Every structure is written in C-alpha cells, then in structure tokens.
Amino acid sequence: METAELAALDREVLWHPFTQQLGWSEEAAPIIARAEGATLFDTDGNAYIDGVSSLWCNVHGHRHPAIDAAIRAQLDRVAHTTMLGLSHPPAIELARRLRDLAPAGLTRVFYSDSGSTAVEIAVKMAFQWWAQRGEPARTRFVCLENAYHGDTLGSVSVGGIDLFHSRYRPLLFDALRVAAGDAEALERTLARHGAEVAAVIVEPLVQGAAGMLLQPPGYLRAVRELCDRHGVLLICDEVATGFGRTGRMFACEHEQVSPDLMCVAKGLTGGYLPLAATLATEAIHDGFLGAHADYRTFFHGHTYTGNPLACAAALATLELFDSERTLEMLQPKIVLLERELAARVAPLEAVAEIRQRGFMVGIELAGFDPALRTGHRVTLAARRRGAIVRPLGDVVVLMPPLSIAPEQLRRLVEITAGAIAQAT
Ligand code: PLP
C-alpha cells in the first residue's frame, strides 16, 4: 500500500492512544516501516533518529542481531504457552537473571505485560499481604504529586497527575498524596496515617511523565528509612528508570535502596515485546502461602503473562548489557549529552530549564500555555529535520536508545535545538 492510502486508512480505522483524534487527521504523522539501530524509516524512506527510544523502551537499538536471533530461536520452540499451571525455560531463566540483577532482597518475579499492570500488581500484592498478616486496616497508599504509574484504574489511583484524575475520579480509589522530593511531608503523612498505610509508591530519582522532575539527592534513601520507621512497604516503580536509563541498571542503586516491591517493564525486552515484572521480597511472597482452601492465592494473571518470546527477548537484552558493556559505554555519552545540551539548547531564549539524569532529559520551555501547544510544534519541527521527539506538555523529552552513537547523539541535540528555535 502507498503512504497516502495507508494514512487515509489509518484515519478511517485506528484510534490512537493518548491522542486527540480530531487533530490527528491533520497531522500527517510518519508511518514507520522499518528501523535499524537508533534510526526509524518511514514508508517513504525518510530517516528519523529515535529520540525517545520508541516510548522510552528501546535499549540496544532496533533490529539488534542478538535479540532478533533469540526471538527467532524461541519461535522455533514455542511462541506462547500459559504460566497458569505450567512453566517454561525462558521464564525461569529470566526470573533468575532478574533476581541476580535486582537490588538485594527482591527474590521473586511475577510477570505481566505492561508497566501499568506491573504497578497494579504491586498495589494488589501490598494490599492483600497486609490483610493476610492480620492487619486489614492497612488499605491506603501514599503516592507523590505528579507521579505517573500507568493508565489502568489502580495505577491511575496511585498517580498524581490531576488531569488524568479529574477525568476518571469516580472510578478511582483515594490515595494519600504528598509533595515529591519532600521527606518531611512524607514523614508528616506517615505520622498521621501510618497505621492505615499499606505502601508508599515512588518513581525513584526521576518522575518521568511529570516532565523529568528530579528528586534531591538522598530523598529515596530518606523515603526508605521513613517506610521502615513506620512499618510500611516501599514500592519502587522502575518502569521508566530501569535498565540503564539513569546510568546504573536500576535507579535504586544510586542510593543503595532495596524496595519491598519493584516494578519493571519498558526496557526489559530492549523495546521489542510487551513484558513487565513485579519483583517481590521473599517475605511478601511467603505471606501468600497457605492451604488451598485458605484462598491466600494471589488472584492475578493474564493470558500472555510471561510470554516465552518476550522472555527470550529479555534474556538476550540483559546478556547484551554484559557483552556490549552497555553501562560502561554509556557514561561518556551521558557527559556528551550534558555538554551538547548546555552548548546548543540552554542558550535558547525559549528554554526555561534543562533537567537531565543519565539518558533521561526534559527540556522545559518557557511560558507554558496549553493552547499554544509549543511542545507539540517542536515535535513537528524536529520531525521535519529528521528526529522523533515527543513532548510532555511544554517539556521536550529526549530519551535515545542507550546504544546511540556519539555522532547521532550530537545530531539529535542539534536537531532539537533547531526545532525549538524554529517553533518558539
Ligand atoms: N510507570 C512509569 C514510571 C512510567 O513511566 C510508565 C509509562 O510511561 C508506566 C508506569 C506505565 O507503563 P506502560 O505504559 O507500559 O503501561
């Protein structure tokens, strides 16, 4: 099918996520036909640098031979089998790998298919665990203002972005919200409500979807200590920060924090296939043990939970961190990115602030006005110059694959600077 025909059909039959369909008709968005490394190609053969890692999940680049081969090899064995009542080698091996990589104490792996469900699962686990320990009053969750933990009802309930809350309020449960980065605010809330609280949930170090808001050093450690002091669980949502994004495998490592529950997704399969996991401590796992008739079972699981192809892709992804020394190679690129942003983007009049942690960048544009859609116009201008970037309101996000070549990284910043200058 020709591009024009595909575009017309798209407008006729598709409903895109997080998208105002009315504007979509006029957008002429690229239709991506193939990709290689950090580059996407549309149906007309135009090349774009994948500046947001295909929604923050691509790690080692597109069409990496090792991940491609791992999926093909698994395809020759079995594409899908259930984990309800059965098991399979890639799920078992991947769980061991995750246990060995994760912060100490997270010894059990529960699979799902998206970041939202990984969070949903953590919330249900924490709730049920307390009930089964004989503390059924612990039903509440403490979350941070501007947090984003996904778009399913439970994950929105523990989120802190008002726009999503106001739309769906009658469908949500009430969480206790505290100011992000403020340990004293958390302390006050736990002092007052501690006995009703099942868990505190945080995005460690960086609140991604809020616009790459950075937490002060020591905050995560303080949160862990407060949770311990008040006897509540800590859930770390590493969906965006996990698998190298902040410069370490997991953001928790920067502050030597081990949560009780940890959610991972996005980069787990290198951005190839939908797979997520909720990691739990042995103590949480054991709180669900009992006779069959006790109904202490964790009542959760999806058709595609632990899909073998996705687990094979994840195993290959994690192996590449060793064989390609991904985190070591990333360090100079983090410095290069910082330097290029300071040289090219920071001097622009329209730029209010640049926030960077590792390979997570938010460029905040001055004078936010939702009607002007400046961030969106920057996206369109960047596209014309050969890069895909996606704004969060008026924050332009850069989150390239960790494997991006230094030259391409420089070009991405150059394109972004040019796009901001043109669109503002
Ligand atoms: N948690 C965090 C921190 C995220 O950034 C996201 C997505 O951006 C999610 C959860 C939801 O993940 P998914 O879109 O895979 O459901």
TrEMBL record:
EC annotation from Swiss-Prot or TrEMBL: 2.6.1.62
**What cofactor is needed?**
pyridoxal 5'-phosphate
**Which gene codes for it?**
bioA
Q: Tell me the domain of life.
A: Bacteria
Q: Name one GO molecular function term.
A: adenosylmethionine-8-amino-7-oxononanoate transaminase activity
List residues binding pyridoxal 5'-phosphate.
Answer: 115-116, 237, 302-303
Keywords tagged on the record: Aminotransferase, Biotin biosynthesis, Cytoplasm, Pyridoxal phosphate, S-adenosyl-L-methionine, Transferase
Show the GO cellular component annotation of the record.
cytoplasm
What PROSITE patterns does this protein map onto?
AA_TRANSFER_CLASS_3
Could you describe the subunit structure of this protein? Homodimer.
List where in the cell it is found: Cytoplasm
| Protein species of origin | Conexibacter arvalis
Question: Which reaction equations make up its catalytic activity?
Answer: (8S)-8-amino-7-oxononanoate + S-adenosyl-L-methionine = S-adenosyl-4-methylsulfanyl-2-oxobutanoate + (7R,8S)-7,8-diammoniononanoate
UniProt cross-references to Gene3D superfamilies, sorted A to Z:
Aspartate Aminotransferase, domain 1, Type I PLP-dependent aspartate aminotransferase-like (Major domain)
The UniProt entry's sequence similarity note says: Belongs to the class-III pyridoxal-phosphate-dependent aminotransferase family. BioA subfamily.
Biological role stated in the UniProt entry: Catalyzes the transfer of the alpha-amino group from S-adenosyl-L-methionine (SAM) to 7-keto-8-aminopelargonic acid (KAPA) to form 7,8-diaminopelargonic acid (DAPA). It is the only aminotransferase known to utilize SAM as an amino donor.
Q: What is the enzyme's main class?
A: transferase
Q: What is this protein called?
A: Adenosylmethionine-8-amino-7-oxononanoate aminotransferase
This protein's pathway = Cofactor biosynthesis; biotin biosynthesis; 7,8-diaminononanoate from 8-amino-7-oxononanoate (SAM route): step 1/1
Task: Please give the residue positions where the record annotates the modification N6-(pyridoxal phosphate)lysine.
Answer: 266
Binding-site residues, substrate: 148, 266, 301, 390
